[in-house]
Amino acid sequence: MEAEKKEEVTFGKQYRYRMVRDYLTITLGILLYGIGWTVFLLPNEITTGGVPGIASVVYFATGLPVKYVYFCLNFILLLVALKILGFRFCLKTIFSVFTLTFFLSVTQEYTKDLTLLQDQPFMACILGGSFCGAGIGCAFSANGSLGGTDIIAAIVNKYREITFGTVMLVCDLIIITSSYFVLLDWEKVLYGYVTLFVSSFAVDRVVYSARQSVQFFIISSKYMEIGQHINKDLHRGVTFIDGTGCYTGAEVKMMFVLAKRRESEIIFHLIKEIDPDAFVSQSAVIGVYGKGFDHIKVK
User: Fold this and answer.
1) Which pLDDT score, from 0 to 100, does residue 256 have?
2) Which residues of 202-223 are buried (b: 16+ CB within 10 A; e: fewer)?
C-alpha cells in the first residue's frame, strides 16, 4: 500500500514537472516568434505564412493591429482542433494564442518606431524566419502550438507521416503569394518565400532534434545491474540477447536499448559507474515507433 502511494506521488511530481517544462518551452517559443514577427518582418513589410501572414496582409492594407485578426481566426481553428486533437493540445494552444496576442500588443507598441535592417531586407527575412521557425518548433516540441497553420500541420501529422515544415510550406505559399495584391511588389513577395523556407527549415530542425532516438548495444558482465538502473532511472526497456564471443568462445549477455538522444549521456554515466570496462556501441536510428516513442502513422 505504501509502495503504491509512493508511486502515485512520484508520478504526480513527474507529471507536474513535465507540464511546467512544457509551458515554459511554449512561452520561450512565443517570445521568439513575437520578436521575429514584430521586430524583423512587419517593419520591413515582409509577409510570413499562416494566420500571422493573413494578419500581416490586413495590417499592411488597413493598419488594423495584427493581434485582432490573429485572435479571431485562431478562435475558429481552435474549435476544429478541440474535436480532432483533444483538449490537452488545445489547452496549450489556447494558452499560446492568448499569450502571443498579449505579447504582440506589447511589442508592436514599443517597437513601432524601430526598424532594424531597413536597407537589408534579405537579412531581415533570414533572421525573422529563423526566430519564427524556432518559436514554432519550441511550441511543437512541448506538444503545443502557436495557432494558425500550426494547428493544421498538427492535425495532418497526427494521421500521416508528413513533417510539420512540409505541411506549413504547402499551406503558406498561397497566403504569401496573395500579399502581392496588397503590397504590389513581387520583390517583397519573394522575401516572404525566403522567410517561409527558413522558417520551415528551423521548425523541422528544432522539432526533430528533440525527437531523435539512438540505440545501444552493451556487453558487460554486470548486465543485470546496468539493465535495472536503465529501467528504474530512465524508464527505458532493456532486452537481453544471448551471444558467444568468437575469440574466447565465452557466453555473453548483450543488452539492446532504445532511448532518446538527450538520454545518451545519462546512459553512459550509468555504464561508467557500474562497469567502466563495458563494451558499448551507440548509433542513431531513423525512427522508433511504439510506447514511449512515436506512433505508427500509415495510410
Assistant:
1) 92
2) bbbebbeebeebbebebbbeeb
